[in-house]
Amino acid sequence: MTTVSPRVIASATSWIEGEAVRQLERTAALEGVRMAVGLPDLHAGKGHPIGAVFGTEGLIYPFLVGGDIGCGMALFSTDLSARKPKRDRWTTKLRGLDGPWEGDAGAYLAERGLAPSDFDGSLGTIGGGNHFAELQSIDAILDEPVAAALNLDPSRLVLLVHSGSRGLGESILRAHTERFRDGPLALGTPDADDYLRRHDHAMQWARASRALIAERFAECLGAVLSPVLDIFHNSVTPRDQLWLHRKGAAPADQGPVVIPGSRGHHSYLVVPQGDVASSGFSLAHGAGRKWTRSDARARLKPRLRPEDLVRTELGSDVICEDRDLLYEEAPDAYKSIDRVLADLQEAGVARPVARLRPLITYKTRGRDGD
DNA sequence: ATGTGC
Question: Which of A93, A262, A279, A310 is the most exposed place for a label (fewest CB within 10 A)?
Fold first, then answer.
C-alpha cells in the first residue's frame, strides 16, 4: 500500500503543533487516501486534525467530516451605517437568540426544499464552542474590483455568522458510528448513498440555519440584510476523481471566502488564486487554536477577569454569558490570523479582498436563553 | 461540536 506524503501549507516561522502533524500523517495513511493537506490553521483534534483536507478514492470516511456536517461561514451586508455605530444600544437589543425561533421552522425549511427533521427546534440558533454571529465594519478594501463585484460598501456594516447543523449532523455521524465505528463506506453502496443523502441534507439545513440566525440578529436591530456568501468548511464532496473531506477547511474552488480571526482580531475576505490544487482545493477556515480549551482556562483565569474579555483590544464587545466559554474562546487561545493569511499568500493560493473589524460578537446570553 | 452527561 502506498502512503501519500501530507503537505502542510505554512511557512517555517509558523508554529504548528507536533501532535497536529502526527495526526495529519496518521490520517494520510488510511486506506484510500490519495491526498492530504494541512492548512495554516492546522491543529490537533480528537484523533484527526482540524484545518485539513483529505482526498480519497473509492471510500469515504464520515468521521473525517466530523459531527458538525455543513458547518461554515455566512456573510451578509446590512443597511446599518458604519459611520455612527450605536454599539451600546445594539448590544442591549441583541437578545433572545439562544432560545428556539418563534417562527415555523418546518415551513422555513420547506421553502428551501428541505425535509423536516427531529432537530428543527435548533434551526436559527448559534450553538456553542467557537460559533458566533458578529457585526463588523469593513476596515480596509484590499482588492477593489472583487469587493465591488460582491457589492461590499464600506459605509455599511456586515454580519458574519459561524454555525453548523447543531444536533442534526451529530445524529448522522452517531448513526454511522454505531454501525461502522470509525470505518469507511465504499462509494456506490446503499450505505454510502444513504450517508451522503443525509450529509447533503445537513449541509443545506446548516446553510438555512445561518440565514435564519442572521435574520434573527438583524431583527433585533431593525436592520435589513442582503447575502454576500455562504461557504462550508466541514463536508465531503467530489472533485475530479477524489472525494474531498474538508475538516475545518474552506473551499478554494468556489469563489471568495471569509477567514475569521479570533473574536478579538480582524477577519479577512479572501479570494482563491493560483494553483489551488496544490492546497487540496482548500484554504484555512480560521486562525486555528493555539491552546486547548482546558489550557486556555488554566492560563487565563488567573490573569484575566470576565470583564477584561467582554471588551477586546480592537474595542469590540463580546456577548458571552457563559464564563468558561469566555476563557476558552479568548483571543489569546488562538494563533495570529495575519500569520495564517501570510502563509496562504506566500503559498500563492489566496489574496485578501477586505479586512473586517469586529464591533459586536454574539456568543450566548447564557443557558437560560435571555 | 453536542436539544452536551451521572
Answer: A93
